[in-house]
Amino acid sequence: MSSTHFGFETVDEAEKARRVRGVFDSVASKYDVMNDLMSAGLHRVWKACTVTVANLKEGDRALDIAGGTGDLALAFSKKVGKTGQVVHTDINEAMLRVGRDRLIDAGVVLPTVVCDAEKLPFPDRHFDLVSVAFGLRNMTHKDQALAEMCRVLKPGGKLLVLEFSKVAPPLAKAYDWYSFKILPQLGKLVAGDADSYRYLAESIRMHPGQEELKAMMKKAGFGHVDFHNMAGGVVALHVGIKC
Ligand SMILES: C[S@@+](CC[C@H](N)C(=O)[O-])C[C@H]1O[C@@H](n2cnc3c(N)ncnc32)[C@H](O)[C@@H]1O
Q1: Per-residue buried b or exposed e for 43-72, using 16+ beta carbons within 10 Å of the residue's own CB
Q2: CB within 8 Å of 221: residues ≥ 6 apart
Q3: Predicted pLDDT of residue 58
Q4: Contact (Cβ atoms closer than 8 angstroms) between residue 67 and residue 162
Q5: How far apart (Å, rounded) are the C-alpha atoms in residues 122 and 95?
Q6: How do 224-230 and 235-241 pair as beta strands?
Q7: Quick one: 227 exposed, middle or buried, by C-beta within 10 A (0-12, 13-18, 19+)?
Q8: Beta 85-90 vs 112-114: how paired, if at all?
Q9: Contact 161, 238 (CB under 8 A)
């Protein structure tokens, strides 16, 4: 079995999948409140930008991968209307369950599918839009997952990857202090789990930067790829078009 990264550690691939599952099993019930606290609510703005760039229309079909607690799936469902479809997916049942309950509380019932982004159970050329928010970083074979996302998109369809990225150099010192000192403490206090938030900080450092991810998306089959930095590169939204 090949080895890979889990944060700063080198582990074998099965161990990474097991540990990533452990992280999201552990944080699922506190995930939303932690997101608001960690980002001071900014994740809502980043997701709102993603929904704007998605530009979905009535009748469109969208797939949200690693959809977790359902923020994007909920917003997309309002855009595609009754004639469209949004499929809410994640590899982790605990995260999906929290998301499904939130959606039902909001009066929205969507197809909810437990699946691995690296082996999507959907036909070729099926969706107008595929999204993955803060999920790609956790995947073992990112190239395989991106190729799958490309496969299920219709020609002309759009992939949106919202993910932590490389911050602008003037922000780096403060961002490191916040990530490695404050985040784990916050995780311990609110979710009773410092390790998962230490993993978050480490996994961000191991994730490809803006240009590297752009190149990976092109290699996976996207004819046109662009990215937009947000919050000085703390986060980037990559947009890939299947030509
Ligand atoms: C940080 S959460 C993001 C949730 C949601 N998209 C959001 O933005 O709030 C990352 C999600 O990626 C999921 N994930 C990790 N590896 C995955 C894989 N191989 N396939 C699908 N989902 C995966 C996790 O289970 C988790 O729910």
Answers
A1: beebbebbbebbebeeebbbbbbbbbbbbb
A2: 146, 147, 150, 151, 242
A3: 98
A4: no
A5: 21
A6: antiparallel
A7: buried
A8: parallel
A9: yes
CA angle 217, 218, 224 (to 5 degrees): 105
Q: What is the pLDDT along the chain (243 residues), one digit of tens a residue?
A: 799 999 999 999 999 999 999 999 999 999 999 999 999 999 999 999 999 999 999 999 999 999 999 999 999 999 999 999 999 999 999 999 999 999 999 999 999 999 999 999 999 999 999 999 999 999 999 999 999 999 999 999 999 999 999 999 999 999 999 999 999 999 999 999 999 999 999 999 999 999 999 999 999 999 999 999 999 999 999 999 999
User: CA–CA separation, 145 vs 153, rounded Å?
Assistant: 13
Kindly give the distance from the C-alpha atom of residue 38 to the centroid of ligand 1, in angstroms, as a whole number.
17
Residues contacting 55, CB < 8 A, separation 6+: none
User: Cα(55)–Cα(60) distance, rounded to whole angstroms?
Assistant: 10
Q: Distance (Å, rounded) from C-alpha 38 to C-alpha 27? A: 13
Nearest CA to ligand 1 atom 15: 138
Backbone CA torsion sign across 126, 130, 132, 138: positive
Alpha carbon of 188 to ligand 1 centroid (Å): 21
Instruction: Give the model's pLDDT for residue 1.
Output: 72
Q: Which residues line ligand 1 (CB under 6 A)?
A: 20, 24, 65-69, 71, 90-92, 95, 116-118, 133-135, 138-139
The two three-digit tokens of residue 186, written as one number: 């916050």
At 133, give phi and psi (nearest 5°).
-110, 120
